[in-house]
């Protein structure tokens, strides 16, 4: 699944173990990784995330200590997401630790990536590309759970970045989604937000279909800016929920 490809995407250079812990913690406490879900084994995780086995083991030990995962030994064993997040784990929720300034900056960065991707896609995408994006938006429209909606949305955004035919933009979008996906999953619990996003994607795909560069940029910017506004609102109301 595309969401899992984002969660387990390669890690950067600094504080690798801490980055893995933060990324997987965000995915667990926001529901992207579901209760009882089995994580890839240590060897596969090391390859997927581009780190050593020692780094993966250290990160998994921290997640176990935080009671976010548990390990079962034996033939059908492995590391699994715990059924419930303990009170201490709730304190690790990204809306508790992340600042409004950071959220605003993340949204601006994402808006820049998707807006420019839409600009290039309006010039370069083929009918096959458009049909594929329309299929993805249809999946998003029919998705019923926050995880399914998030997964479908990430696929749509990656498709737009890919249609820019810029490998650098597509790679930046993939890296950014490691943070973005766990945050918007909380928004997709709202049916109203889900419906609003579907309408915004309809405007964007129409602009791309007509190869209208200005309209595509405006629609892409409005899509990400809408998410950012809701994320900031969610952050400000987090402690009162």
UniProtKB/TrEMBL annotation:
One GO molecular-function entry: DNA-binding transcription factor activity
Q: Which SUPFAM superfamilies match?
A: GntR ligand-binding domain-like (SSF48008), Winged helix' DNA-binding domain (SSF46785)
Task: Identify the CDD domains for this entry.
Answer: WHTH_GntR
Q: Which PROSITE patterns match?
A: HTH_GNTR (PS50949)
Q: Does the keyword Transcription apply?
A: yes
What keywords were assigned to this record? DNA-binding, Transcription, Transcription regulation
Short name of any one Pfam family annotated for the protein: FCD
Superkingdom of this protein's organism: Bacteria
Pinpoint the HTH gntR-type domain residues: 14-84
State what protein this is by name: FadR family transcriptional regulator
Lineage of the native species? Bacteria, Pseudomonadati, Pseudomonadota, Gammaproteobacteria, Enterobacterales
């Amino acid at each position: 699944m595309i969401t899992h490809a984002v969660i387990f995407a390669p890690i950067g250079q600094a504080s690798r173990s801490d980055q893995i812990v933060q990324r997987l913690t965000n995915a667990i406490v926001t529901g992207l990784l579901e209760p009882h879900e089995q994580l890839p084994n240590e060897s596969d995780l090391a390859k997927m995330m581009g780190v050593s086995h020692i780094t993966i083991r250290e990160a998994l030990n921290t997640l176990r200590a935080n009671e976010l995962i548990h390990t079962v030994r034996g033939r059908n064993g492995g590391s699994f997401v715990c059924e419930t997040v303990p009170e201490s784990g709730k304190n690790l929720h990204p809306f508790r630790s992340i600042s409004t300034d950071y959220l605003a900056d993340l949204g601006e960065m994402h808006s820049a990536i998707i807006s420019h991707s839409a600009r290039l896609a309006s010039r370069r995408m083929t009918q096959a590309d458009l049909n594929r994006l329309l299929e993805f938006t249809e999946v998003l429209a029919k998705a019923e759970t926050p995880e399914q909606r998030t997964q479908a949305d990430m696929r749509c955004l990656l498709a737009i970045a890919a249609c820019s035919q810029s490998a650098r933009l597509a790679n930046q979008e993939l890296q950014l989604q490691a943070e973005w996906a766990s945050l918007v999953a909380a928004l997709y619990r709202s049916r109203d937000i889900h419906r609003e996003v579907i309408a915004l994607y309809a405007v964007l795909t129409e602009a791309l279909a007509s190869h209208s560069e200005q309209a595509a940029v405006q629609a892409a910017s409005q899509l990400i800016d809408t998410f950012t506004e809701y994320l900031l609102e969610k952050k400000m109301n987090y402690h009162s929920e």
